[in-house]
Give the backbone structure.
Amino acid sequence: MKAMLLHEDRLFPAESSVRKVARSLYDGVRNLPIISPHGHTQAAWFATNEPFPDPAALFVQPDHYVFRMLYSQGVSLDDLEIGQPAAREPRKVWRIFASHYSLFRGTPTRMWLDFAFQELFGMTERLSEKTADVYFDAIAEKLRRPEFLPRALYEKFNIEVLSTTESPLDELKAHTAIRNSGWKARILPAFRPDPVVDPDYEGFAAQVAQLGEQNGEDASTWKGYLSALRKARARFKALGCTSTDHGHPTAQTADLQQAEAAALFAKVMAGKADAAERELFRAQMLTEMARMSVEDGLVMQIHPGSVRNHNRFVFERYGRDMGADIPRATNYVDALRPLLDRFGNERKLTIILFTLDETAYSRVLAPLAGHYPCLRLGPPWWFHDSPEGMRRFREQTTETAGFYNTVGFNDDTRAFVSIPARHDMARRVDCAFLGRLVAEHRLDEDEAHEVAHDLAYGLAKKAYRL
Amino acid sequence: MKAMLLHEDRLFPAESSVRKVARSLYDGVRNLPIISPHGHTQAAWFATNEPFPDPAALFVQPDHYVFRMLYSQGVSLDDLEIGQPAAREPRKVWRIFASHYSLFRGTPTRMWLDFAFQELFGMTERLSEKTADVYFDAIAEKLRRPEFLPRALYEKFNIEVLSTTESPLDELKAHTAIRNSGWKARILPAFRPDPVVDPDYEGFAAQVAQLGEQNGEDASTWKGYLSALRKARARFKALGCTSTDHGHPTAQTADLQQAEAAALFAKVMAGKADAAERELFRAQMLTEMARMSVEDGLVMQIHPGSVRNHNRFVFERYGRDMGADIPRATNYVDALRPLLDRFGNERKLTIILFTLDETAYSRVLAPLAGHYPCLRLGPPWWFHDSPEGMRRFREQTTETAGFYNTVGFNDDTRAFVSIPARHDMARRVDCAFLGRLVAEHRLDEDEAHEVAHDLAYGLAKKAYRL
Amino acid sequence: MKAMLLHEDRLFPAESSVRKVARSLYDGVRNLPIISPHGHTQAAWFATNEPFPDPAALFVQPDHYVFRMLYSQGVSLDDLEIGQPAAREPRKVWRIFASHYSLFRGTPTRMWLDFAFQELFGMTERLSEKTADVYFDAIAEKLRRPEFLPRALYEKFNIEVLSTTESPLDELKAHTAIRNSGWKARILPAFRPDPVVDPDYEGFAAQVAQLGEQNGEDASTWKGYLSALRKARARFKALGCTSTDHGHPTAQTADLQQAEAAALFAKVMAGKADAAERELFRAQMLTEMARMSVEDGLVMQIHPGSVRNHNRFVFERYGRDMGADIPRATNYVDALRPLLDRFGNERKLTIILFTLDETAYSRVLAPLAGHYPCLRLGPPWWFHDSPEGMRRFREQTTETAGFYNTVGFNDDTRAFVSIPARHDMARRVDCAFLGRLVAEHRLDEDEAHEVAHDLAYGLAKKAYRL
């Protein structure tokens, strides 16, 4: 019989002197407020403050980390009622999930889930086919209580600031509603212009037109298009936005003459641009966004290198973001050069680089960030937001870029209740890394305490200007 | 003076709490039968059951792991009598090997050799120039005993099933002879069609013609060629074969219209295909093999990314497989897409992916296997079938793909007496990894015992349908 | 209050049994003489034996590891007086450095600096804004003492041999002066022909002409050019040179017919070669250098894969080598093949390969060096010359290439006083790695002592023929 799902010393190295330091560092940061500068929760949850519907809708259906693993082992997405507005039989979905729970052994998803099960819902016995209904009933019951409403959870989680990610076309009604409600939370939108800067995005041209209309500009011209983007950025900024986010297939940038750029824009809008020209357009737009960031101070985030919707059948049947995005090797050294030639030495500019290609950490990202004043390294992303992934990130970037060219943690999640679990994991793993440095006499303990605090709290606030 | 060559706790982490768990896990799996679903032993050894000739022929001449290291340090292959039918002076070869034994410090080869020296031949003092003759005499003497004949060793090794790797042109006489002999061993052929699907294979066209003749098909036509392959597969299957194996230079796949494929086949057979067309043909053949696997249930293994026979001089003088194959960076994300678009969601299909490019583990292979129902990850291959290589594999794949999208261990060896050593090493390294997870409270100990059993035994049986 | 900047057990694993072995191994090698076969100190320091001017000129201005980190965090190179003949206000530069010292937490630079501060200058309190002046005054005072002159330091550092790196155009006056002075130090030049073999090097054609003049050859012809190079090598060799060094953008080699090569040379000299032809010329020159090495016995070092002067603004304003070189993914498997086809099996030839692309370690460099008799692996280079980088190198190369296809340590530094710190770090990290192998029973302790000695001393002497 297990008393707890999670051990107090989890993720700390077993060796006693390292563990002792790690614990001590963690004690200093475990209760710091959460800074969440990048994620995919929905502002509407906090605007309406309605209860989360059921355990399946909370834990299974929105979380592609969960259902991609189930799918890989033969569970059908139909049986999980994925892509439906709401599960008709949430208990059935939950039982499928529970009976496959052993698949998650050794994964961070398992630890995030157990954290929420234990800390939020008080479960003490492991989820399994046998305990499926106990879990379902306990969670379903709690979700109806006032202390489990979105705003109550936000407060319970000790979140100091939470950024969502929105299209420039989003009217930000939920964000406005939160502001107007008088509730004292700091929930901000990040500006993600992919739908209006990536010609390969579904509905690109119509979205650009809409962008123009919304902002009172003629977005069929290059000048009007840029002005509309500037206005949209200003509108986001007025609601507290401090950052933009760019999910491009590559890190390619370009620095065309404005006349060339205008001609390229016209061709792209006319639907006559080939693949290389569409790539060039995205590349140019990163440099345009950097130019606007120099002007308005929004921090840029670049998330390149994901092949979206790799599984044709799943995409055609269930749509985007169904756990079938697969990373590709990513070039930064040549790709970023045009932008860096133009703005790389601007001290007012901050560009946070992410990667799904871990080979870039030591070869190119740490050398770049350890030199260019505008560059910082984002935390390990997506598949690498895991104990081993976070350890590799520190081991492969710190010696060249140090700690101060990194920016703390992003939870980057759609799964709201996983936020405390994810920050807790990151804090533990960073303390474990620092604990090893201290125990190996590569860093003094007083310095390690300062660094731990910066990694858990200070760097994210500073880098994201929060 | 050393009492033993190998320590009972070898390969377990030094930290006492991790080591304790690792030992306990290992105790649960060390004596499990060996499942060897992929390797390069010769069925003829077991069909004829003749003694292995001498120590050099057993340990040095067939093992390119051994002689490539000697060659790298200036030993000539002629002096090792490589490429000869049999050594004329095996003792001289053995002395050269023994006097260079320190080169193998820190390599898995050293541990495999020491395991066989100790466990099989009872040696207790380290091999060196000084002990060369003691070893030679002791091993040579034992090889003449009945308990060192191939079948006796097979039984002593506790092998439950052993797969060899054969060309579709192989008549499988040795496999048939084993079956007919009444000996109760399970020795199966795997179907490796490279000589008849790779236009760059020496003698390709003639081999295709022979394939047609052997199977009563006109293999000069696309249809006849495919039928001949189908029949050859059926013939292998009748002798217990459960898998195919594909050693392509890249992981490229294609999904041509059948008319296009037929035209390409004609061009390839006419010797008029250029390099890109020959690559396209191999790519198409992977998809054809997948189609046949959906029909007949054979599990596919894909082993891409080796530049074969990199050393021109060595190839011209000594032939293939002389330790001069060098890995190349390997693309999977785009390369596999045509095949996956066609069959990736087939739950009846199993494709086991291997790599020599470790950068693919976390970037693409784990994400692919953690999503597509047909994909599984093969164990670390070749240069990476080593303690550090196996550790990296687990550290870089588990968090995304879990344990259950992997398939246990392959010894993949030509060196029959290294089989127990290799499985023992894999079991120890997996238990060391699991021991760390348990000691860091990332996995419960009862679960770790289940996983250890699956990694050592269950997953290989299941994935290979044995 | 801290008594010491550095702990005696630094860089050893915390686990007690590993640490015990590591310490014991380190005790056997810590006081071995320093073999420094590759570096960038200046022979003139030892020829003139003048005092180093001030702390900033010693620690900050020549060390791009130091100022690149400061620059990345917004410090201007002008404020550091970089690119000036000498700092006008060294104390001001020093204070900037001191007040940013926390940026170096977790970096090897920090440990190298602390080593010199403690061992050479007797500092006991950490460098910071507060202690900046104490440091400046103490160091400045000591630099004026006789025991801090370059020759005295060379002797204090227990250097057995030190190689500098020089252009073929260098008259080697400083080296000659050292020889003629009667001082018994062994300071040798390495032959680095990049300025006369790389068409993209600033001033290439003029330098080739000068090479011809200096050596009494008509370097406008292919034959005369090669003869001039041969004579220049002989001149270096007469002053003790044992190696050449090649800093090419890629590892590409070629093996053209001599007539083709002559035509290419003519085109290159005429300034009419395009980028691909200039690359082909560099490629051919590596093979020419290998041919000369077979003749004259100079060991070749190949350092490929750095994108030099990535930051346009910094290059235009401050020049070369300003911390803005960024590594690129590097192909070896195809690139080296032409050279290896020609000379790969020459036992008289030694080629030492370096990389900035760590993915090459296990995928291609260890497999190559574990097979070809002429190849050896250089130590981790530049950004990877760090505790984690050196650990990864051993973990990723040893199992395939062993220890004896590696060549010991290079300090590769411009920062003379960091030499003992760098060798000490390498010895500690190698002993830590060996200590783990011993504690995990993967290597016997008596063997580990031999290997530790070879890694710290023997292999460098042997590989570089010193």
